[in-house]
Amino acid sequence: MALAINKDNFEALVAGDQPVVIDFWAEWCGPCRMVAPIVDELATEYEGRVLIAKCDVEENDEITAKYGVRNIPTIIFLKGGELVDKQVGAASKDALVAKIEKLLSIAWHGMRAVEFSKGDYAALLVPDMGANLVRLADTRRGIEILRAPAGDEVEEFRRRPHVFGLPILFPPNRIADGQYTFDGRTYRFPITDAKGGHYHHGILKSQPFAVSKAWETADEVLVECRYYSNAGNDAIFRDFPHEFKCKIVYRLTARGLEQEVMFANRSKEPMPVGVGFHTPMRIPFAGGAAGDYVMRAAVGERVELSERNIPTGRKLPLSEKFARLRGAGLQVTDCDPIEAAFTVREIEVDGKPFRGALVENLRTGVRTCYEVDGQTTCWTIWNNGGKVPYCCPEPQSWTTNAPNMPDPEAEGFRSIAPGGTWSMKFRLYAK
Q1: 335 tagged catalytic
Q2: What is the pLDDT of residues 346-381, one digit of tens each?
Q3: 121: part of which helix (H) or strand (E)?
C-alpha cells in the first residue's frame, strides 16, 4: 500500500535517499479512484527502491500548493528532493512504470542504464541498446563474468554491441545473401557482412527497449524490458513485416542471473523466429593469465561450414581439439582463431548433466557458468581471433542460415502462429 503523506512526515520522507512518487488525490475524484489500485500495486512492487505515497489534497493545502497541483489526479516524481517529472490526469500502469524506471535510471555514457544487485551479484542493464545486460559480476570474489565496456570502449559498444554483455541476435548469426522464403513470402534483409555477402546478427541488438516492469523482494530483483515492432514506428518492420513483441526478463538472485526472452506474434500470419546470444564470457575473469583458463561446452557434432561460414548441411565428428570442450577443457583465448559451429549434447560436470558452457580457472577451480534450455539447438563458438579478454559461446535456437537449408525444421527453424508466443531461458553464475 502507498504511504499516506502529510505535513508531519513530508519533509523527512522527501529528504530520504530513495526517489519519491506522490499521488495527489481526493475521495470525491472518480479518476483518482481508478488510479488508486495501480498506485498501491506499484508501492508493493517498488518497495525498498522507491517511496510511493498518496497525498489527500483536501487535507494538505501547503504540500499541494508547493508543487502547483491544480488538477487531480496528479502524480509527481522526485529525485534528491527535486521535482523531475509530473503526470497530470489518469494514466496506465505501464505509463507510470516507464516514468518510475526513468526516475531510477542512471546516466551511463549518455545512455539510460539500470543498476541492480542481489547477494554477491551486481548487474548493469542498458535498455537503450537492445536491453543488453552489459555487466554481471560476483563482487565478493571479484569475478567479472561478462565482457563489459570500459570507458574507452563505449564507442565500440555503440558500433558493435554484440561483443559486450548479453546481446540478443534476431535472427542469430548469418542469413546467406540476406534472404529466405517462408510460407510463400520472401524475406529480404540488408547485407551487413560485405565480405561474406550475408545479413549478420539482426537488428534488435541495437534497438531501444522500454523498461516495463521492475521489483525487488527479499529473494530477487526482477527487471523486464519490452520492444514492440509495428508498421507505424519501426525500421525492423520494413525488412521483417510482422507486428511482434519481444520481452526480455532478468531475475537476479543470490544464485546468479536467470534470463528469459519471449516473442509474441501480433500479426495475422505465421512469424519465423530464431534467436541467439553472442555472449562474451570474460577470460581471465579473476586474475591470472589466459593459460590458466579453459572452456568446456555441451557440444555434440561439429557443423561443417563453407568458406563463407555457412553450414553445408553435413555434421562431422568432433576433432581431437574440439573434443576437449566435452572433457578437460580447451584454452580459447591467447591462442589460434576459433569460429566453429556445433550441435548440442549434454556433458557431465561434477557428476551431473550440464547443458551449457563454462570457463574454469585451473589454478583456483573457480568457474563462470552459462546454462541453456532445450530451445538451444546449436552453438557457434567464436574467440575474437584468439585475443583476450573474452570468448563467445553463442547459443542459437536454429542453425546458422536454417531457413535456407534443405530441411529447415531439422536445423531448429520454427515459426509462431498468429497470437502465439515462444520463449527460451538461460542462467549465468559463478561457482
Answers
A1: no
A2: 999 999 999 999 999 999 999 999 999 999 999 999
A3: strand 121-126
